[in-house]
């Protein structure tokens, strides 16, 4: 997915931009916040933030419980049009569910959005993915995750450098990831432990659109000791790669 083009301020509503920033403040586990919490995250004054939050409350997108705000189910409607227009429900879902049965693992799909990847399909019965914190709408780093690296490896070199420079990784870590991206390009998949404390591993493969541009990645999460490297290289990765080709028209 291409990055949005800059738009002159005279053609946009800055108030609307600020409202969307307030909605995005609830990402990454920020689920229950005061106005002060939200103001700190978005960088606006408390007075301005309060007006934005109250507007969202009146519209039904957030609710107030003891002066703490959380999103309501209505916020899900904001993404529903995207999922329907991109055939996530009636094309991508059935294909990934069918392929999941064949390999015995749930397959998730994440799409590129600016400098992060966002999950748009996930089998809720997949306990491994749930344990790793991956749910619909959650975003992940293009530098620190298998899914992200499967995407990042196929972006232009200058964009890769920008992503690594802003990832929060140390210089040595960024250099290691940069080398790993070259390996991802050659082998066609990324493999990473979910976290140092977890016994879960993630496998990601790139997914391209009809123009041959990187659009996202397919991934599975599984216990570290479930598969050998040979099984991953000869069976799992090729299967996900073939699965990605089925979805070209929807990406």
> How many E strands?
8
In N-to-C order, the SSE pattern is HHHEEHHEEHEHHHEEEH
Note the overall shape: globular
Query: What is the mean predicted local confidence, pLDDT?
Result: 84
Spatial strand sequence of the major β-sheet: 5-4-3-8-7-6
Radius of gyration over all CA atoms, rounded? 19 Å
**Helix-strand category:** alpha+beta
Total helices: the number is: 10
Low-confidence stretches: none
Give the strand content. Answer: 15-25%
Residue share in helix: 40-55%
The largest pleated sheet is described as: 6 strands, antiparallel
Distance between the termini: 9 Å
Nutshell version of this structure?
Helices cover 45% and strands 18% of the residues. With 251 residues, the protein is α+β, with helices and mostly antiparallel strands.
Architecture overview:
By secondary structure, the chain is an alpha+beta fold. It has helices at residues 14-24, 35-42, 46-59, 77-85, 88-103, 127-131, 146-152, 157-165, 171-187, 229-246; strands spanning 62-65, 68-71, 108-113, 116-121, 139-141, 190-193, 200-208, 214-223. The chain has a six-stranded antiparallel beta sheet, with helices on both faces. A hairpin with a 2-residue loop joins strand 1 (62-65) and strand 2 (68-71). The longest helix is centred in the C-terminal third of the chain and has 18 residues, at 229-246. 30% of the residues are buried. The mean pLDDT is 84.
């Amino acid at each position: 997915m291409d990055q949005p083009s800059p738009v002159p301020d005279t053609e946009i509503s800055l108030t609307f931009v600020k409202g969307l920033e307030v909605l995005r403040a609830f990402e990454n586990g920020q689920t229950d916040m005061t106005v002060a919490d939200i103001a700190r995250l978005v960088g606006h004054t408390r007075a301005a933030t309060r007006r934005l939050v109250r507007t969202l409350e009146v519209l039904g997108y957030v609710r107030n419980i003891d002066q703490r705000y959380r999103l309501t189910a209505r916020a899900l409607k904001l993404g529903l049009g995207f999922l329907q227009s991109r055939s996530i429900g009636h094309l991508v879902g059935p294909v990934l569910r069918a392929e999941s049965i064949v390999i015995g693992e749930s397959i998730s799909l994440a799409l590129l959005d600016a400098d992060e990847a966002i999950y748009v399909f996930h089998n809720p019965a997949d306990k491994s993915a749930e344990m790793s914190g991956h749910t619909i709408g959650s975003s992940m780093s293009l530098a620190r995750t298998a899914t992200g690296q499967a995407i990042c490896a196929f972006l232009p070199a200058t964009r890769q450098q920008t992503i690594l420079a802003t990832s929060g990784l140390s210089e040595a870590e960024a250099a290691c990831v940069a080398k790993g991206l070259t390996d991802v390009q050659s082998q066609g998949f990324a493999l990473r432990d979910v976290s140092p404390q977890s016994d879960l591993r993630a496998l990601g493969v790139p997914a391209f659109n009809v123009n041959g541009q990187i659009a996202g990645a397919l991934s599975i999460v599984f216990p570290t000791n479930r598969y050998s490297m040979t099984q991953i290289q000869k069976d799992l990765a090729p299967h996900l790669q073939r699965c990605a080709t089925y979805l070209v028209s929807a990406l």
